[in-house]
Amino acid sequence: MSDGEDSELSSDEVLSRKRSKGLYILPNLFTLAALFGGFYAIVMAMNGRFDQAAIGVFCAMVLDSLDGRIARMTNTQSAFGEQMDSLSDMVSFGAAPALIAYVWALTSLGRWGWIAAFVYCACAALRLARFNVNTAVVDKRFFQGLPSPAAAALVAGFIWLMTDIGVAGADVRWFMFALMLYSGLTMVTNVPFYSFKDLSFKRSVPFVVIVLLALGIAVINIHPPIVMFALFVIYGFSGYALYGWRKTKGLQTSVISTSTDEPDERGLHK
Fold first, then answer.
1. For FRET with 218, which of 183, 190, 210, 265 sits at 20 to 30 Å CA-CA?
2. Helix, strand or coil, per DSSP, at residue 250
3. In degrees, to the nearest 5, what angle opens at C-alpha 103 toward C-alphas 187 and 158?
4. Torsion over CA: 161, 167, 169, 172 (sign)
5. Quick one: pLDDT at residue 200?
6. CA–CA separation, 9 vs 69, rounded Å?
7. What is d(CA 76, CA 202) in angstroms, rounded to the nearest whole number?
8. Mean pLDDT by 10-residue block, N- to C-terminus, for the chain (270 residues)?
9. Using CB atoms within 10 A of its CB, is residue 214 exposed (0-12), middle (13-18) or buried (19+)?
10. What is the CATH number of the domain that holds 90?
């Protein structure tokens, strides 16, 4: 571009171009915090603090749910942020739960233990890769397969609960083995899981919704390990229940959409 053309640009356009060359701090800060949660979980597991490791995974899950919403609310989405989020998810919800579960219980199973941990980790990677390439064709109201944060919450929640009540990992190693396979394989199925993405923080809600949220927080605080694990067990099976209900009603079961319009404007097909 010539000097004459540069002089024709307004100050706002020049500032916009300069900003586009940089990175947005706020959403990436939440992504880095989620990554730290996964890293912290691994370190705690190496030190035998499995309750703290599980809490680290849950903290990463909360932070991961916020970075995308904050990026959309502040209009700071970027391709870099999307890639950073996927890499953070692989550490926090793929590698971290697999390593924590292996150190806590699966190591006593020998070869079968690390195979189960690897299956979970590999399925998490496949789930994230499929999510990235199918973003434009999947109905945003649903996830295609169990989302990796929920799978990680199932694993970490079980470890947190057992640690809290004083049960050693070796005593429940085969249940941990089955849970790892269930969580991992469910991530790569086509079973629909509700995504909650059609809920908007910008819309007004009835007063009773705020009351219910307050009650929900109070219930979680009664005994966090039991309540959190129970919630994600329900969610972890909800996809199969939804699939079976749609199947019996003769409704479409696939979350792959026939168009790339908004969720309420596109139809599902088998």
1. 183
2. coil
3. 50
4. negative
5. 63
6. 33
7. 16
8. 47 46 77 95 95 95 86 80 90 96 94 96 94 77 90 96 94 96 95 78 71 84 90 93 85 59 37
9. exposed
10. 1.20.120.1760
Can you tell me the distance from the alpha carbon of 244 to that of 247, in angstroms, rounded to the nearest whole number? 5
Q: Can you give the pLDDT at residue 18?
A: 46
Decide: helix, strand or coil at residue 97: helix
Q: Which residue has tokens 């939440």? A: 30
> Does some domain include residue 10?
no
Give 126: exposed, middle or buried? Use CB within 10 Å, 0-12, 13-18, 19+.
middle
In a domain, 270, yes or no: no
Backbone dihedral angles phi then psi of residue 176, each to the nearest 5 degrees: -65, -40
| Structural domain of 144 | 24-265
Global pTM reads: 0.81
Q: Is residue 239 part of a domain?
A: yes
CB 149 within 8 A of CB 210: no
User: Cα separation of 257 and 139, whole Å?
Assistant: 6
Beta strands in 136-177 (DSSP E): 142-144
